[in-house]
Amino acid sequence: MAEAKRPTLERGLSPRHVEMIALGGTIGTGLFLGAGSSIKMAGPAILIVYMVTGLFMFWMMRALGELLLTDTSQTTFVAFIEKYLGKRTGFVIGWTYWIGWITIAMAELTAAGIYMRYWFPSVPVWIWEVVFLAALYSVNIIAVGLFGEMEFWFAMIKIVAIVAMIVTGIVMVIGHFKTEAGVTEISNLWRFGFVANHGHNMLAAFQMVFFAFLGIEFVGMTAAEAKDPLKTIPNSINNIIYRILIFYVGALIAIMSIQPWMDYSANQSPFVQVFAGIGITAAAGLINFVVLTAAASSLNSSLFATGRMLFALSGAKGYFGKLNRRNVPMHATNVSVILIALAVLVNYIFPTNAFELITSVASAAFIVIYAMLMLAHLRYRHSQDFLKSEQLFKMPGAPVTDYLTIAFLSGIFVILLSRQETRLTTILAIIWFIVMIAVSFRVKKLR
């Protein structure tokens, strides 16, 4: 009797979808909302933090790209971790990656509720969380092409908003526009001090900036559903460094030139604060809509990632390995959505700092995931697979850049452990890894 055909995901993502998904992965709530907190911590020196973190994230993505192009049929990059670091490591990182995206989705859901307060301050945040989760769940279970199209336009809105912010900053600097905070000048970056609080919170800013980059590896989740992965994946990864310079650094320079960095609130989007500060209330409302779409975009990506991840963890078998008639992992997506909905409970218990708590959990988990990815790349470089490979998309500077990236990630983890605000959640992440390692020894197929 012939073996039943294994279910496969549909290659419904066009090159423009993959390009915009990669771009959307590098621009999210960490920039639009978290930048307010980062600016307060580090001052204009936050630009250095973004550039340093961006460089290491670029190296990580080049390592990922090199691995992906050895086998573009893999649903997630965790398959390479399993291949080169062993089944037990793959098991632990696979489930951690899934739960990591669950926490990212919870953070984005929380952010969406916070943004809606701008227009409806009396409506509880949890109501908006339910509305957004239900709407984007519907998009994700219909077809991968619809997901790609939705993500394309979400990313386009973010790009237009950031470009508009940069252009506004340039025009106001050239015209020396006056605002309530003073004259718009590029010298606002340094005339009130380049580093906040004598640099005491400089290292702490790395945690929020690192969170801003979480999801950058999401383009790796599209390889199995992209129409031309050998072309689109390298192009998307190589463009990341330019996006970081233009969209992150460029936007922050514009923001801190228009309004001195001391005038920004840590718990509100600096993009909204800029336009409110220069007296353009309508524009502030428009920017709030943009940052809302950024949260929706990241939540949309999270739903996509968690469903595919759980599908991959099942080995495309059993309950979670079933696809609906549109080749979407319906059951895996359903379970992920139920867990993401727990963000409603977190916001109820911790109404004032739910976003910070969730982001610190996600950061701790992804540090380990990215470090394991770099170790897998190192192991690959010493394998016969690499010696026989003829691909040209190789990570620059390896293995030195691998070791430097691992050292950087380790430093971020130490920062999380040393800060009182993030110590508990980081310890919880450590406990998670200990439990998952113990579970891995109980799973027969890993022996």
Automatic annotation (TrEMBL):
<feature type="transmembrane region" description="Helical">
    <location>
        <begin position="357"/>
        <end position="380"/>
    </location>
</feature>
<feature type="transmembrane region" description="Helical">
    <location>
        <begin position="159"/>
        <end position="179"/>
    </location>
</feature>
<keyword id="KW-1133">Transmembrane helix</keyword>
<feature type="transmembrane region" description="Helical">
    <location>
        <begin position="126"/>
        <end position="147"/>
    </location>
</feature>
<keyword id="KW-0029">Amino-acid transport</keyword>
<dbReference type="Pfam" id="PF00324">
    <property type="entry name" value="AA_permease"/>
</dbReference>
<feature type="transmembrane region" description="Helical">
    <location>
        <begin position="20"/>
        <end position="39"/>
    </location>
</feature>
<keyword id="KW-0813">Transport</keyword>
<feature type="transmembrane region" description="Helical">
    <location>
        <begin position="424"/>
        <end position="443"/>
    </location>
</feature>
<keyword id="KW-1003">Cell membrane</keyword>
<protein>
    <submittedName>
        <fullName>APC family amino acid-polyamine-organocationtransporter</fullName>
    </submittedName>
</protein>
<dbReference type="GO" id="GO:0006865">
    <property type="term" value="P:amino acid transport"/>
</dbReference>
<keyword id="KW-0472">Membrane</keyword>
<dbReference type="GO" id="GO:0005886">
    <property type="term" value="C:plasma membrane"/>
</dbReference>
<feature type="transmembrane region" description="Helical">
    <location>
        <begin position="400"/>
        <end position="418"/>
    </location>
</feature>
<feature type="transmembrane region" description="Helical">
    <location>
        <begin position="240"/>
        <end position="262"/>
    </location>
</feature>
<feature type="transmembrane region" description="Helical">
    <location>
        <begin position="332"/>
        <end position="351"/>
    </location>
</feature>
<feature type="transmembrane region" description="Helical">
    <location>
        <begin position="45"/>
        <end position="69"/>
    </location>
</feature>
<keyword id="KW-0812">Transmembrane</keyword>
<feature type="transmembrane region" description="Helical">
    <location>
        <begin position="199"/>
        <end position="219"/>
    </location>
</feature>
<dbReference type="GO" id="GO:0055085">
    <property type="term" value="P:transmembrane transport"/>
</dbReference>
<feature type="transmembrane region" description="Helical">
    <location>
        <begin position="274"/>
        <end position="299"/>
    </location>
</feature>
<dbReference type="InterPro" id="IPR004841">
    <property type="entry name" value="AA-permease/SLC12A_dom"/>
</dbReference>
<feature type="domain" description="Amino acid permease/ SLC12A">
    <location>
        <begin position="17"/>
        <end position="438"/>
    </location>
</feature>
<feature type="transmembrane region" description="Helical">
    <location>
        <begin position="90"/>
        <end position="114"/>
    </location>
</feature>
